[in-house]
Amino acid sequence: MPGKFYEDPIDDYLPQNGNRGYRVSRYELELVYKVAANRLAGRAEITAVSTEVRPRFALDLSQSLSVSKVFVNGARVAKYQHQQGKLNITPAQKIPAGGALAIVVQYSGTPRPVRGPWGEVGWEELTDGALVASQPNGAASWFPCDDHPSSKASYRISITTDSPYYAVANGTLTRKQTKASQTTWVYEQPEPMASYLATIQIGQYQKYRVGSVQSAVPMHAVIPVRLRARFDHDFARQPEMMAEFRKRFGPYPFESYTVVVTDDELEIPIEAQGISVFGANHCDGNRGAERLVAHELAHQWFGNSLTVSRWRDIWLHEGFACYAEWIWSEAGGGPSADQLARAAWHNLSRNRQDLIIGDPGPQLMFDDRVYKRGALTLHSLRLRLGDAAFFTLLREWTARYRHSSVSTQEFTDLAGHHSASSLRPLWDSWLYSAALPQLPQAGAASVG
């Protein structure tokens, strides 16, 4: 029965996402998108290894898309079923454990965001173009996948669309070819990537270099021409941010970094692997979104290179990115991290204290208190360890688990090696208690 795939969820926060029986190593996506009609046709080639013998396998795929053909290991599959967001595939021959699993799915339809407790996520139409913002479970809105953050793979994404439009996807642009009225863009993302971080951005954009050609990390902007002057002012300090974060967090984990600014306004910026997406409203000419510029950049380390194994540990993404805002403020001549931490603590102390950030629950996993209290947890740890040990820990964290899946347990275990005494009381009070602990006094360790 199809219900079999919903038993024993991989992640209690997203019980219908993720699939058992295989591990994906690579996705190769060939997509054709018609902007005016919002029509997507795709061919997904998925390379995986089976982890157990089972009669069938499942992929996550939105019901907005219709499947026309399925192949497994070169043989066309007569038996597949697509319902309730699952594409269940029964191979003609049983696949042994450890056996190669090459799945090809041809599909098409009108892509729509996936509705859930966090609103609509996934493929979304813009006024003139499209964007993909999939956190946490919107990848299935545009390609068949194992849609869970612990499932990381390399990608090749080919997107063909109308020639006036610029198309961006993760990784390095390896080929661009125009035929008649359409252009094909081919991107290669070799570093492992969770499905929710895969993205496509399409719009009437131009690409510009950000910062010096000699920069250690190539940075680009893909933006509407009309926003160029505002962007140049508002994002001018991004190269300095990159330098500060490389010093604090260790080497940048990808080949390059691209910022996309849509012609539409967006409620919040969006991170993808190697890419951050902002709305036109984030280019206000006054650097009003500089805090968010730092936040999204920091996600390249915390969230994209190091990705949680389960969504309950999301503070490892958002708490770290929020704390990076404070680190940048301190480095960039604004309030110190300690000043910002004490202001955040004061605000939190006046709010409800009914959230455990080490396991906030699916409804509250994107609650601002997870972000701020996660950052305060890190500031408390910094005060406890001192700057030298704290930043050594962060660099070791990003190096040891580069391009991997991570958990709170792994971080707390690693942190323990940098402290002469047990950190258990700190973790218990900050991560696993609802009541807001007191912040340690500044001065016990250097801050700055």
Protein model, in words:
By secondary structure, the chain is an alpha+beta fold. It contains 9 helices and 23 strands. It has helices spanning 228-234, 238-249, 290-298, 315-331, 337-349, 368-385, 387-400, 408-416, 424-431, and strands spanning 22-34, 39-50, 57-60, 65-72, 75-76, 80-83, 86-89, 100-109, 114-116, 119-126, 129-133, 152-162, 166-169, 172-179, 182-194, 200-203, 206-210, 219-223, 257-261, 270-272, 275-278, 306-308, 404-406. The chain has an 8-stranded mixed beta sheet, with no helix packed on it. Strands 9-10-11-16-13 form a 5-stranded antiparallel beta sheet, with no helix packed on it. Strands 17-18-19-21-20 form a 5-stranded mixed beta sheet, with helices on one face. Helix 2 runs parallel beside helix 3. The N and C termini lie far apart (59 Å).
Give the arrangement of secondary structure elements:
Layout: E1 22-34, E2 39-50, E3 57-60, E4 65-72, E5 75-76, E6 80-83, E7 86-89, E8 100-109, E9 114-116, E10 119-126, E11 129-133, E12 152-162, E13 166-169, E14 172-179, E15 182-194, E16 200-203, E17 206-210, E18 219-223, H1 228-234, H2 238-249, E19 257-261, E20 270-272, E21 275-278, H3 290-298, E22 306-308, H4 315-331, H5 337-349, H6 368-385, H7 387-400, E23 404-406, H8 408-416, H9 424-431
